Structure prediction request, 1013 residues.
Amino acid sequence: MIVWLFMLPYHLIAQNKDEQNLAVIVFDAEDGTELEGVGIIISEVNLNSVTNDLGECLIEGLQDKSYKVTFVCQGYKIETVEIKINKNKQTIHEQPMERKAFDGDLNELEEIEVLGDPPADGGGRMIPIEDLPGLKSSIGSVEFSKQDIGDAAGAVSRVAGANIVDGRYAVIRGLGDRYSSTTVNGAIIPSSDPSKKAVQLDLFPTDLVQDLVISKTFTPNLTGEFAGGVVDIRTLKFPKEPIINFGAGLKWNNSTGNKIGVNPDRSMDFFGRTNDDLADVGGIGRPFPTGVNRANRDGSISSRQQEAIDAWGKIHRNGSWKSKFQKAKPNRSVKFLYGDSYQTDFGEPGVVYGFTHDIESSMREGVKINRGAALEGDFAANQGQVRDVYTESIDWGMLLNAGVELSEDHSLWALYMTNVSAEDKFTRGRKIYLSEDSSTPIDNRDRITGQLGLPGTRFEEDDDENLFGASGTAFRAYDEFAHLERNISTFQIAGDHRLNAGKGIGLNWLLSNSNASEERPDLRLLRGFQFIFDEPHPEYGESVETIANILGQNPSSGFREFLSTNESGQEAKMDLTIPIIGNLSSSVNPNTDIDDEPNFLELQGGVSHFDRKREVRGRFFQYGVSSRLSNAALRNPQFGVDLFDDFDSVIVDGIRSVSKTEGVIIKDQSRGGNTVRNVDASSLIKSAYMMGTLNWRDIEFISGARIEREVRNYYIDPDLNQQSLAEFLNPDSPVQNEYLLPSATLRFGYAKDDEGENNQSISLAYGRTLARPTFYEYAPIRTVDQSTGLSIVGNQELVDTDIDNYDARWSWEPTPGESVALSVFHKNMTNPIVTTVESISSSNFERSWQNANNGSLQGAEIELRKYLEESNTWLLTTNFTYIDSVISGVLDKDTGLPIGSASVFEGQPTYIFNINLGFDHENWGLTSNLIYNWTSEILTDISADSAVPNIFLEPQHSFDFVVSKTFNDSLKLKVSVKNIFDNPVRKFYEGEELTFEEYRKGRSYSFGFSYKF
Prediction:
């Protein structure tokens, strides 16, 4: 700093004698640390500048008068002071900055546009990082709090060009799943979803997140699996001052009644673990006892029969088949946060610990589900049901981040984070009709569901087959109990280093080990039948369920399934930054003119190694009802009703003959049929990149290339699957590929003001990227989608997708804190991968993937940030996105001929609109936000049959209101109302009246408080 001040006279010699200079030094008011990147604004002369890495800035061309100067820095209060400029000598002003009061939101980061990652020391840039050309959008912890955003999925939905499908998966610029990636602090993380590559973003509570950054323009330091973009979740970092924060809240939803269906003998503890005796697949022995054909004549039980009784009984009685309705637990949440840093002789260590815990009960009653198929060449409904879903969930997360700043140029940190979501779900399927059950013409409208399609089977009072002696309609029915536990944990260590006192080579490295899992330890489904009376029955009421096969078929009574998916990802990466022209502190170099300070050239290179492994395990146990039970249920209607209500009491005697046993038969079908439930897969990606950044006056140019090599493979263990099937499907060798991915980005500023500062800029970018099929997409095996129950079949003929990305952006910042931006983008795709759904029978559907010949996607984004009055109390933030895509015909994998009618990518809306009207009165401690989101219809599934329409999700509206009040900078109260409109969520067949699925989420109300010590 002394050298910099000493050099000031040399710069004053050449200046106009009527123009004066202002030298500013900005520092943290608490610890005296110089602050880099502080915006300095003199509105009177429309002048903006920014401090360098030493907190210094020289402003030239001022008059000898007083100016109001505003200082803006993220995490600090905005300061406006009056500075008198001295005549004929330099004016030196030292400005302390006070940190914002901390309420658990460690950093306020509004939506900004940045390029790449800044060097550890700022790279000598005098252009703010916010103004650089790459298209990134961010949202930070203060906005999480203001808008009451609970998880990373909700945060993504607020960003321009992004939307969320199924409540957890990000779609960026119309592209999701395999077309986008998710990282934590820059490290790739695995997915726990058995049938998707996409990471489940609802697993990341925002209370543990510092900010979320979405990269929309490819640069070589990002992963090559980049088409829509990359979501980077940046975790909490320790603060500069001690903080303890505690909070709690309550929530209600109008769709949740007083009673909720639950499993009576299973409960979750504080961490979402169940009390099942048989917690996972590993507890079931192999080979599974098959039982005996008949009992011994003398009534004795053989060792083989006893072995079957024990094993079958363990399966059958692991969890109840009987539902119970009880009072719903109140939805509630707690959170805790502690952070501090310390001054020591060896540096400044710090730590932050965060914990969140949420309990919620929910219900969706009357969910309408229909399926259609090409029957006799014409599309028509062929099955449907009405479903009630009751869910109890526990979500919790924990983060521990510790680090040390050894000096200004060297720092180390370590992070451990785990997030768990567990839920117990009871589903009641009723009014189920299949085409083979119906005795009524197809074109009739179902009098019960109101849908076009097939009603149930009619019974008149005097029909011989009528068990209940009253007129009514018969349907199939089922009860399903399921527990789901999702978990993702990450451990990272990293270091940032800069040589030669901050002016030389920079080195950043990171090691990451992540694990994701999805456990479904005991999915059990009991099938039966439902009879709905035309008039209420004196004994059974409006309807009754029975185990008796009143439709004349012999359906299996049910099954139990144990499923587990585990995926791990280990990444090691290193980045090296080498300054070629200029350095980070050119202002202290006596041979460098301060006017040339923004000009520099630096090279950046790096390598990474990412090893992903996935293990899928499953066991499937089929139930068979004895003919004696079936006949008894047909002879005695009450017996069939009682058996459906209390299937726990059924006999398990170890006899495998349907005609000999008195109860049920349990068979291990894990290795039966052509479904594979046990698969191992791996993917190893090695990559390297080189890029250069040139900043010359008003131009910023970044260019380079990335090389990626991948080896992927899968293995079907013959010991865990059908041996002949495993030997036939296992690959001869792994798939290997290599790609060279170039990119270039150019940004230039213009529209200079009188002081030579730019407030407008244009950015142009090009990058080549790719999308790879995941193992379940290319492995030619039949598995089961754990979330939907659909059969999924991989396609070994799939090839990678090549993508050429073109981006352009114009931005304007008329005043500090206000901005307008317009972005346009275009993507050419060769061999895009699309999801297809095909009807393989009248009641079964199959999902697969195929390559289209080519496709393109283009669109535009408009963003506006505007204060509505001079005090900056009211702020309007809005963005609008338009996306259009074209896909060539999807080819049939057998004939090679075009099929289906897909014209857009699945998950892609045409329009996305967000608007937020915010009120923030600092003196009152009062904030409020009105938030509206509208997303146009979305393609969810592409039909593999040209006679069956594609499936779309209707446009979705979301309208939320959040208000909070802070008392004495310590206590904060918050009230929110979400989904005020409560519009139905409806999927439908394109061009048809038939509903694929429909339900309502309900309107939610919440009240919470937090207290800062």
